[in-house]
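question for whoever is on the cluster today: can someone run the full assembly for these? three chains, 811 residues total. i dont have access anymore since they changed the login thing
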Amino acid sequence: MTLITLDTKSWAAGLTAAADAYRLFGPVREDACHTFKALEKGKTPDLDMVNTRLSPKALIFPQSDIILEYSLDESREDHHIMREVQKDVTPRAVVGIRPCDAKATALVKLNFDAPDVKDPYWLAAYEATTFVGVACDAPLSTCFCTTAGCGPYSEEGLDILVMQKGDGFLAKILTDKGRAFAKAAGWNPASGDLAAFEAGKAAAEKKMVSAVQTDHLEAADLLALHNAPFWEKTAFACLNCGTCTFSCPTCWCFDLQDEVAGKSGVRLKNWDSCMFPIFTVHTTGHNPRETKVQRVRQRFMHKLKYFVDKYKTGIMCVGCGRCVRQCPVNIDIRKVCEEMNRFNPADACAVRD
Amino acid sequence: MSDWEPKIVSFFCNWCTYGAADLAGVSRFEHPANTRVIRVPCSGRISPKFILSAFMNGADGVWVSGCHPGDCHYIEGNYYARRKFALFKNLIEYMGIEPGRLHFSWISSAESTKYVQVITDVINAVKALGPNQQFVKNKAKVA
Amino acid sequence: MSGYTEKMRDIARRLLETGAVDMVIGFRKGSLPMMNEPCFVTRADDAHCLVWDGHCGINLANYLTDRKEKIAVFAKGCDARNMVTHVIENKIKREQLHIVGVPCTGMIDKRKISAMTKGEVLAVTETDDAVTVTTAGGDQRFDRADVMQQNCALCVHRNPVIYDDLLADPVTEQTIPDRYADIRKIEAMDAASKWQFFEDLLAPCIRCYACRNACPLCYCPTCFVDEAKPQWVGKGQDATDIRTFHFLRAFHCAGRCTDCGACERACPMGINMRLLTRKLEKDCQSEFGWEAGMDPNQRPALDVYKTNDPETFIK
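^ ran it for u. tokens below:
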């Protein structure tokens, strides 16, 4: 682990230098909100931001991604043969990603980089990417990262963690990828004060006002939780839109679609959402989750129970609070988590609602 | 560009315009032939999705033609269609499609001369606009 | 609208105690400022959780579709018009409904408030004519009229058109000289500018379908965007697919939309898709003299015709 102290000038100059070797992405202000976008040459990411509306997961896992292409023209020798498309997987860096979103990438990796199955598209993009995170000193009232297995200074999933300190920055190099980026940026290693990091971390964590309790989730009986009586009330307001899942940095479900124009076709990998009525509908027409209540339950059970049981690494949520802030009808994962965590099947018949 | 010929998708009611087109053919009237005719049971059968699909799939113009008001084979199908078309045409032009790309007409099965007149007008109007660039869905490109 | 909450709870309690209804649909206090959560109450003891303030913009007619119970529901002017539409379209029976009319003075636009406030909004309080926003940096006060949802600022039916109970005396209706100035501005553009305008308007769309799902009119068992045979629109982020979705969504609401604003309010990306539905609302008025949801005994605009309907656009 190496520390580097940077003033504003060397921060900007370093990013400009790094831009020769990396395609840079970072938060950019658009109207009233921030969005992760490719940074124009010479531009630094706008760090004066609250969490972006959409997470940066699309940089690795685009909402709609062409993975294969083919021709239906039978005069061609390679007709009806799927070909992998060539993508730009030259090195890139996401500068200004929040620790919560970086941790989310690490969670998504569990799915796309499993021991038995690997998603080559996701992995190629992931491996090409260096994550330069900026610690979060101003959490929102809806952030609950510290109790969601993460934190404002969490390092998981990051290659470099940068904290803003006075007029400058203090960078902590965490991995080889991070070291390579620092070298490309011409940042001079080994100067800086680790205690400042600890102090910043403690101060930021103290600002967190929101929390979830997850201690009983793993021990809870899966079927009892699945059949718990509270789901109808929890799901009542839900509109079954995809806002929560699309804004979530950890939601990884996707759908494959073929699109043909004339005689040439492509296969697309699109974000899917468990909120949608056609999510996982079988070709027989059978729909395993036909009702709204079943779909809402699927989302929360996946994040807070199935994932917990399967991977034993905590919940599939990093506490970024996006779904809480953006749900049009105020369905709040913190409240649902509380309900699930305190659920005791023995009480279920005694409680009237 | 001078060689360019527009592709026009025409939805004709089985009971009138389709017959008029047939009659124009048997009568050996000459007219440009840029239309792909789709026979429908009534202009009331036309869903906005049909028209948008035609544009999405590369039609340069769309033409819908049915029976004169009062002459509907199903008594009132074209009356309902007329309301739908009025709103549809306004909305699609409001979203930026050129007015000359979408045409509606009432042509009875006896009006083969009107048919020839309208098809000529429709094709000329679309030709004047050039190829359709709007609402066309092109093959997805690799990012 | 101050004092509505207490009256609502009383009415809910009475209706549930006497067994006049099986459930009451209303709002409960949200977990965030400027958010309330639609909820149902089945026991008189729980009526105390009901609230009403300037953040009840979600249209409760949306929660009535195909329900079988006898239901009491709170309805602003726009909501009541959607309930009329629901009854006309057989999505619920009038006898099943006990409509508690809520004379409305407009809902607060949470996006406007966030944009006008420096820092995170921590709390919002309101009176009949002012809204006070609390942030870490102190309080900011706004005129209610300046932070109202645009559809509410343009509303001319604030009082419910049908009701079984009225929560308070009717409020004065607004007179708006030109409700469609913004629509006319777009109409006046040339085709290329119009195209570009909607290209920009719809660019942020992520196809979460919040606009569709927040709308009480969108109750098709399978929406056209979800159909596979034939597949009318692709499912990716193609601009033509996105535009087609918005076009057809709006068109399906033609002659039915009451401009309740639920779609725009629900959109996580802040897209004003009401520019499409309001164009249709305007045309329904000018072409057919029709206003949606005003009378349970009248069929909607696209379900009737006149022999002399306008047809100058037809050759």
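summary bc i know u wont read the tokens: The mean pLDDT of chain C is 94. Chain C touches chain A through 42 residues (CB under 8 Å).
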